[in-house]
Structures are given as C-alpha cells and as structure tokens.
Design a protein that fits this description.
The complex is a heterodimer of chains A (about 270) and B (about 240). Chain A has about 270 residues and is of the alpha/beta class. Chain A has 13 helices and 8 strands. In chain A, a hairpin with a 6-residue loop joins strand 3 and strand 4. In chain A, helix 1 packs across helix 12. The longest helix of chain A is centred in the first third of the chain and has 14 residues. Chain B folds into 2 domains: about 80 residues, Alpha-Beta Plaits (2-Layer Sandwich); about 100 residues, 3 Solenoid (Pectate Lyase C-like). In chain B, strand 14 and strand 15 form a beta hairpin. Chain B starts with a helix and ends with a strand. Classes of the chains: A alpha/beta (about 270), B alpha/beta (about 240). Bound molecules: adenosine-5'-triphosphate and magnesium ion. Magnesium ion (MG) binds next to helix 1 of chain A.
Chain lengths: ~270, ~240
Amino acid sequence: MARIIVVTSGKGGVGKTTTSAAIAMGLAKKGHKTAVIDFDVGLRNLDLIMGCERRVVYDFVNVINGEASLNQALIRDKHCDLLYILPASQTRDKDSLTQEGVGKILEELSKDFKYIVCDSPAGIEKGAHLAMYFADDAFVVTNPEVSSVRDSDRMLGLLSSKSRRAEQNEEPIKEYLLLSRYAPDRVKLGEMLSVDDVQEILSLHLLGVIPESKSVLNASNSGTPVILDEKSDAGQAYADIVARYLGEDKPHRFIDEKKGLFGKLFGSK
Amino acid sequence: MPTDSQKKPYNVPALEFKSSTFAVPVLVLASNDLTAIDEQLQNKIQLAPDFFKNSPVVFDVQELNKQNLDIDIAELTGIIYKAGLLPIGIRGGDQQQNNKALELLIPVYSPHHSVSTEANKPETQKQSPPPAPKAASSTLLITQPVRSGQRIYASGDLIVLAQVSAGAEILAEGNVHVYNTLRGRVLAGVLGNTEARIFCSDLQAELISIAGNYKVSEDLNESIRNKPVQVYLQEHTLIIKDIA
Ligand SMILES: Nc1ncnc2c1ncn2[C@@H]1O[C@H](COP(=O)(O)OP(=O)(O)OP(=O)(O)O)[C@@H](O)[C@H]1O
Ligand SMILES: [Mg+2]
C-alpha cells in the first residue's frame, strides 16, 4: 500500500508545485517508487518544473475518462527511474475530475507505488478538495505572512473534517508544516512572521523551513526539481525535509540569519 | 413480484409509531411588541445564521398570557418564518390562540413542560427524583484545534482543550471553556441563557457573546487581552475579568 501525501496550502503561489516536485524526487532518490500527480487541471505546471512537458501524451483526465491507461499516461522521470509523473490536462475544465475517478486511480497506483504525491491547486474548491480527500499525510505549505497562515489554518480545518479519513472516522490525516520562502533578515526587520509566530498560530509539527532562494527560479527554468541542486540552500532544505519525513533526525536549518563575512570573522550577533 | 409477497403469512407493516425525543429550541416571548420581536429575532439569528436556518422552533406565550398581553399568532408565525425558522408548536397559549395556531397547522403543546432553555435532555429526567448535575451529561468535549472556517455547536456546555483559530466559531447553549488560546468567535448561552459564562486561558477572540450580548475584538480592553479570563453578564453588560 502506498502512502498518499497531499501538498496543499489554500493560498496560491506559496510553493506547492515546487515542493511537490522536490519531495517526490527526494523520496524516489531515497529508493522509494514514487508518483507525483498534478491536480491543477487547466493550469498545469508540474510537468514544467519536472522538465517533462515535451513528453506529455495523455493526462490525468484521459485516465479518469478511460481514454488511456495509467501506464500510458505516467511519464518516467529522466533523472530517476523510480519517479513517475502524472500530468494534468491543460485543456479540460476542472469538472473533469470526479471523486470516484480519482479514487480509482489512486487505488490502482497504490498497488505499485510506495508514495503518491498530490500537487494541489490553490483554493478550497473541488480540485483542492479532491487532491486532499484521499490523503494519509498533508504537507501544508505556508509562507510567513498572515494571509497565508490564515489560509493554511482553513485548509487544516478541511483536512480534519472533509477528508476520507475524517468521514470514515479513521485515524486523522497526519499534518506537517512546511514554512516556505523564509527570509530571516526580513523576519528580523519585522516584515515577515517568524517560525515561532507561525508555529504559535497553527500549532503544527514543523517538518522544515525552506529559505527564499534564487535557486528555486533557476531550477524551474531548467526543469529540474531544486532538490537536485545539492549545493543550494533550498535544495538542502528539501533534502532535510524528506529525511525528516522518513524518520531521520535532522536539526532545523535556515531559520537564523546567514552571518555575512563580517559576522563570521568577528562572531558578531 | 406481487405473487411472492402474497404467499407471505403476514404482511410486513408499512409503518410503525415510535416514541422519540427531540431537542427543539423554544422561543420564549416576554413582549407582544411585534416590531421588537422581529428586530431582536433577526439579531439573534445573525449570530449563528447556519445553525438557525430552517431550524424548528416552538414559541411560548405563557408569560404574555400571565401579564394579559395579547399577541397576534398569525403575525407572529409570519415573523418566525421570515427569520428562516420553522414554527412547529405553540406553548402556553389560551383557547383562542391555540385555535388560531391549529388553523395555521401548528400543533399545540401543553404548558406544563419545563420552560428552562436547558431542558433538552431525555424525557426520563422528569421521573428521576434527584436531578443529575446539569452540565455533565450534555457537555461536548473538543480535543482537536478548531480551525478557521470550522463551527462547533454544543447543546449544553462546551469544553475545548485545543486552540480556537481566528475565523473559527464555537457556540454553546450553556457555558464555554477554552483551555487554550481563543482567537475565533465564541458565543455562550446562544438560546438566551443569561447565566452562561465563557472561560478561556488566553483571550484574543474576534467576538465574544453571551445570550446575544456581544463585544468584538476592537471593543476589548487591552488590559484583558492575552490573559486568562472569565466572561459573564451583569444587567445586559458583558463583564470580562482576569482570572490569573
Ligand atoms: N523557496 C523559494 N524561494 C524563491 N522562490 C520560490 C520559492 N518557492 C517557490 N518560489 C517561487 O514562487 C512561485 C510559485 O511557486 P509554485 O508554483 O511552486 O507555487 P504553487 O503554490 O504551486 O502555486 P499555485 O497555487 O499557483 O499552484 C514560483 O515562481 C516559484 O519559483
Ligand atoms: Mg502549483
């Protein structure tokens, strides 16, 4: 049986797709057969971040409608044999996704995969609902600002009441906080919420902090998940997150200000 | 297959009467001023529109009749319908009022029932000699955070052990206890119990209300913000007291 992870947020543009691509790659690189599914029908871009947009033949909706088999639609990643991408449709409208159809596909994937990562669209409407409905774990991606935190809180409410696990009275979805686009210097200036602020509002287990980083843009331009850029801070942050999720003990990084050369030399605070 | 069913020795009955107890809010009227009733009813409903939508309600005119205040039953039910409630009974009416209600297809209830707003416990309680402690049986306990967009309703007391987020709403007919940070909206005594109280260990609420008397965040005094407090009503005024 696979473990189904939804990467969700409520608010748009906080880094869900970046995160989905990175952790799916990270899990696969650790030796787990992983599928990553784009639930953002009509606005697909997971395939761009994964660099497989030119190999898309069939998509998620084709499989739901029975126009293609799952095997035909899954795209094997070019960097890692254990990673497969199920792209979203660019042309269909959101109503093409049905709960029954999604359930069937996840069930079929579950037989063969260890992890299934669902990249949720923004909002709390149907697409986002279907992305989280069958989840076992939720990675709640939040930016350190009030509106993002508020939307995450709303999403957490839905996870605990409108999911399959909630409806069937099973053990609740495991929820993790991923604080993304974190800039310690801006926190210090009071322009952003701190890790502690966000933790206090959401009271949620922190899986990791991903720093605001130029490497994310570079990675998406070149179509390689940022986790493959092992020298970059964001890449390392995602590697830590995957390790922690798999049970390794890694101290948190990227929370404090980087000390500049001056700081290093004189150990100033 | 009609032939099949005819072979059966007995016909399975198509219906059966069973006795069941429902908790239905009772609208106890203290004035026959229809304009005031209309206005105050709307205000109450605004506090929890989802909860009251299409909710059945019994209206009680006993107090009015004691004071010889007459009220037009047809107009009153009109006001109740307009507020989105569904009147399903009159209580404490005189002969003429009861007849009028029946004309409007509204059943008549005897006034002997307890008028207390907390009386939505099973019928059996009438017989049992020592009244059980009120809160215990009808207390709703919540151990998970109440998140933005979520709503919790308790027909008795409500105890929340986790945080209540901004954008969440918790309501109780009785008291509300929050042993954590309270950031959302909290309404106690929602059916008019002015004795209800609110307790919380860190007050940052968006709105607090007891029996319809409310304060919004902006009205909260800085001195009690982020403090453990209790809230109660004293002559229609919310009193918020530090209990540190
Ligand atoms: N850690 C980061 N540092 C810098 N930029 C980032 C970071 N994470 C994401 N971004 C940028 O933020 C933008 C949105 O990212 P992404 O597409 O992953 O968000 P999303 O939550 O999937 O958005 P949507 O809600 O539209 O699906 C992109 O331009 C991405 O490059
Ligand atoms: Mg996205």
